[in-house]
Write a structure and sequence with these properties.
Elements lengths: L1 H19 L27 E3 L7 E5 H4 L17 E5 L7 E5 L2 E2 L3 E5 L2 E2 L9 H4 L5 E8 L13 E7 L8 E8 L4 E9 L7 E12 L15 E14 L5 E16 L10 E18 L6 E18 L2 E19 L4 E18 L2 E21 L2 E12 L3 E15 L2 E13 L2 H4 L20 E14 L9 E13 L1 E5 L4 E5 H6 L6 E15 L2 E14 L15 E10 L5 E10 L20 E11 L3 E8 L34 E10 L3
Parallel strand pairs: 6-9
Antiparallel strand pairs: 1-2, 2-8, 3-4, 4-5, 6-7, 8-9, 10-11, 10-33, 11-12, 12-13, 13-14, 14-15, 15-16, 16-17, 17-18, 18-19, 19-20, 20-21, 21-22, 22-23, 23-24, 24-27, 25-26, 27-28, 28-29, 29-30, 30-31, 31-32, 32-33
């Protein structure tokens, strides 16, 4: 209960402070005007759209897009996207992970309003810990992007924009319940106390959980772990009379879950229990250095502590992580044509891990010096050239070059190109928590293994705004991206062994060592009739990776293709909204020891159907919907479920849904400022 007690005190303190503080109005100074994800989202914007004005390939999910799903948390927010796929890491813990450009989500940098977040241990359950109703929008940038936020983006960035302190919504409430008893409640309040407009705060609270045991497939294991998540956040904005702008805030998350075999299996059953506690705070300061705001200085500081205590059958893992990020930036808008940013940053992580009695401590840090130059000779062409040099505590100096181009040869056509290097530290267990939901992982030394992963990504896109639609709402887009690793951590699964090694270890055996992915995507969006929107996407991935002693180089458990169609119809004044999403998920190659149970060693193609109807009243919405209405589930997701203490037990081989059809109902209430 310590986490729940802390969050209650945290929210109470935020309410008390807001009641006593003075006021605010001014817009955000210091927003990155050259941001690769720069866009302005209006209230009438579609749920998902391609940002036309962005320099890079950016997909935006707006608040209306977040309303399309039950959307209890961030993991539920990508069902309409073929770019980003979300799946379970295993069939026991409930941890979720995204995929982008054919690679695991660990290679996609997660940002909290441009601050790196969900790193290391915090990334295991991070998608479950961020309530989607706290968010204003989600911006997904494909490929490498700005070096201003560190250099960990290899396949892309996902930037989360939260509800703002200056929103004129003193109260927002959302509650929903699903047929599997999963329920959630969100409360958000944006206040501008006092008579002037210089101060604003937003307070956010969340609680969710599921409270009934289900075992629909009869394998003796809970289909979804029982658990409780409580989260609180408090963010402030203050602009001083001198023009200095402050943003600061804090957040807390407490999460506990219990999974494994059903209680009816007795005291000797295989059990999973995980407890997460996360505390964090940040501060951002923007200082204008000239009256016209052409020169400014900014400081960003962020700190997070995350603690995880887990039991997985006979294995125990207790991990703690202190993370800090500091960024100093100087920006100079020389003219409309030339703009540059210079900066210094430091990223620091201190880990303490206990695994089955063995302790592994590590300190990983890098200090960087960077510069980014933007050249915009006209509204039709933009170039962003960036260079960054980082000193890594254990690996010396690494240089990260990046280049992004946008060219609009004529009004209906936008071309983009992007390329560069990305680097990240591997966190072996945090990167693949699913190995603990097996009886095969015996290498405790891998937990403390230090590895700096290194990759290059190149690609681009073509967006054609079809000329027959004068509104510009009919867009056909093509994407291609290629990612190639020069060093990477590899998890290799066999019938009785789960091993972790590096790509360079493959080369040391005399094998040809490589790891790469080609990713192709085509999108079509249109509004053929007033109030009726259509979005269709198809993505194809060719991912290859060599492993020690393996003949096939096809990367296991990676979907070859996915197609998504979303249809939405809204009546006049959007009083009624009808939404339907169909996705068809292509096959993936299974691990070699599983091939006998699958035709040609590939999983079957399967469809997923989502539907929702919303009735809007003045100030509140009622909605009902369904998920996975095709009722498709992965057959026998747990290998050797009948004897989990057997050396072949494995709950990590997940490629499809674990739960069948679910229905839900919810309500949203918004009180507007008068």
């Amino acid at each position: 209960m310590r986490g729940l007690l802390f969050i209650s005190v945290f929210l109470a303190a935020g309410v008390s402070a807001a009641a006593q503080a003075p006021p605010d109005t001014v817009g955000m100074y210091g927003e990155k005007r050259d941001s690769l994800a720069a866009s302005v989202v209006q209230a009438s914007a579609p749920g998902n759209f391609r940002s036309r004005g962005s320099v890079g390939s950016v997909e935006v999910i707006t608040s209306s897009g977040l309303y399309k799903m039950a959307c209890c948390n961030l993991a539920d927010s990508f069902e309409n996207s073929a770019s980003v796929s979300v799946g379970y890491t295993d069939a026991v813990t409930g941890a979720r992970q995204i995929r982008l450009l054919g690679q695991s989500g660990i290679y996609t940098q997660m940002l909290d309003e441009t601050r790196p977040t969900m790193r290391g241990i915090g990334g295991i359950f991070g998608l479950n810990h961020i309530p989607s109703q706290w968010l204003e929008s989600i911006k997904t940038s494909k490929g490498v992007s700005s070096v201003l936020d560190d250099n960990e983006a290899i396949t892309g960035q996902i930037n989360l924009e939260y509800r703002k302190p200056m929103d004129e919504k003193p109260l927002f409430l959302q509650a929903s319940v699903m047929s599997d008893t999963r329920a959630d409640l969100n409360v958000v309040s944006s206040l501008q106390p006092g008579r002037n407009s210089r101060l604003g705060t937003v307070m956010m609270g969340h609680i969710s959980g599921n409270f009934v045991d289900f075992d629909h497939n009869g394998d003796g294991f809970l289909d979804d772990p029982r658990g409780l998540v409580a989260a609180a956040g408090n963010r402030w904005r203050y602009e001083s009379p001198s023009g200095v702008l402050w943003h600061f805030g804090a957040n807390a998350v407490y999460d506990r879950s219990r999974g494994g075999q059903m209680p009816s299996m007795g005291e000797s059953r295989w059990k999973s229990s995980v407890e997460n506690l996360s505390l964090g705070g940040y501060a951002k300061m923007g200082v204008p250095l000239s009256a016209d705001l052409s020169r400014n200085f900014a400081v960003v500081a962020d700190y997070t502590y995350h603690e995880l205590r887990g039991r997985f059958g006979a294995a125990f893992w207790h991990a703690g992580q202190h993370s800090a990020f500091v960024n100093l930036l100087f920006q100079h808008y020389v003219s409309d044509v030339h703009h540059y940013t210079l900066g210094l940053s430091e990223t620091f992580d201190a880990f303490s891990q206990f695994f089955n009695g063995a302790r592994k401590d590590a300190i990983l840090s890098n200090a960087g010096l960077f510069g980014e130059y933007t050249f915009t000779p006209s509204h039709r062409f933009t170039m962003i050239a960036a260079l960054r040099a980082d000193w890594y505590y254990c690996d010396g100096v690494k240089v990260t070059p990046r280049l992004t181009l946008r060219w609009e040869p004529w009004e209906q056509l936008v071309l983009r190109a992007n390329g560069g290097r990305g680097l990240r530290h591997a966190f072996p267990l945090a990167d693949n928590i699913g190995v603990l939901s097996t009886s095969k992982f015996h290498d405790a030394e891998a937990i403390g293994m230090h590895l700096l992963e290194d990759a290059w990504t190149f690609g681009g896109s073509l967006s054609w705004y079809l000329p027959f639609d004068k509104s510009g709402k009919t867009v056909l887009s093509f994407d291609y991206f290629h990612t190639r690793f020069t060093e990477q951590g590899i998890w290799d699964n066999s019938e009785r062994d789960y091993r972790f090694y590096s790509l360079s270890s493959v080369a040391a055996t005399g094998q040809k060592a490589y790891s790469y992915a080609h990713n192709f995507q085509v999108d079509l969006s249109s509004e053929p009739l007033r109030g009726f929107t259509l979005a269709a996407t198809f993505r194809y991935t060719d991912a290859r990776q060599t492993r020690i002693g393996r003949e096939s180089d096809i990367k296991p458990m990676t979907s070859l293709w996915k197609g998504v169609i979303n249809l939405q119809y809204a009546t006049a004044m959007r009083k009624w909204i009808f939404d339907l999403t169909l996705s068809v998920n292509g096959p993936c190659k299974v691990w070699e020891f599983m091939e006998a149970g699958y035709k040609n060693g590939y999983t079957p193609v399967y469809p997923l159907l989502f539907a929702q109807v919303t009735k809007r009243f003045r100030g509140f919405d009622l909605y009902i919907g369904g998920e996975n209405l095709t009722n498709f589930t992965q057959r026998n997701p747990i290998i050797h479920a009948s004897d989990p203490w057997d050396g072949r037990f494995d709950a990590s081989c997940i490629w499809g849904p674990l739960m069948g059809a679910k229905v839900y109902a919810g309500v949203r209430f918004t009180l507007w400022k008068i």
